[in-house]
Amino acid sequence: MGFFSIQRFIFSSNFLFLFLLVPQSFVPETIALENNNPTAYEVLKDFGFPIGILPKGVVGYDFDHSSGKFSAFLNGSCSFTIEGSYRLKYKNTIKGYLSKGKIASLEGVSVKLFFMWVNIVEVSRRGDDLEFSVGIAGAGFPVDNFEECPQCGCGVNCNDINQQKVRKIWKNPLVSSN
């Protein structure tokens, strides 16, 4: 065995020895990093729902495959207006039971109807429409309306709102560009 072969053998042996000394807790973390868990949005897609039924900013979720129980967690409560007239409010925890094309026993999402807030208790997918039920009444909307996740505070037209604010500043005669 030559000098370089001996060095290679010693390096390989030391590497193997160090690898064997790696704590057992390190190995599962590495495997967990390679086995990426789906996001809450991806779980919803697996059950036939568009990602836009949840606002941006979900920080975590729980899902029990056997019962279908689903919980999504936000940093705080969230509200915004969609379609120009529907005011939605999400609590920091949204719960329900997922099945293919249906979210039942929904908690944590409400819509303002006239002067009062009403809980949305069920969401069903019927072909290319989503049906939102508040118990005694409901409304349907095209699935395409929910392809984009709304943002807390401004909904899905956040860029439009920001551009309108910029335009107002530029049109204001009291604001000088000098």
Automatic annotation (TrEMBL):
At the top level, the lineage of the source is Eukaryota
| UniProt keyword annotation of DNA-binding present | no
Q: Which UniProt keywords apply?
A: Signal
Which segment of the chain is annotated as a signal peptide? 1-32
InterPro entries cross-referenced by the UniProt entry: At5g01610-like, DUF538
Q: Name one Pfam family in it.
A: DUF538
Q: Which PANTHER family match?
A: OS05G0362300 PROTEIN (PTHR31676:SF76), T31J12.3 PROTEIN-RELATED (PTHR31676)
The name of this protein is: DUF538 domain-containing protein
Q: Which organism is it from?
A: Gossypium raimondii
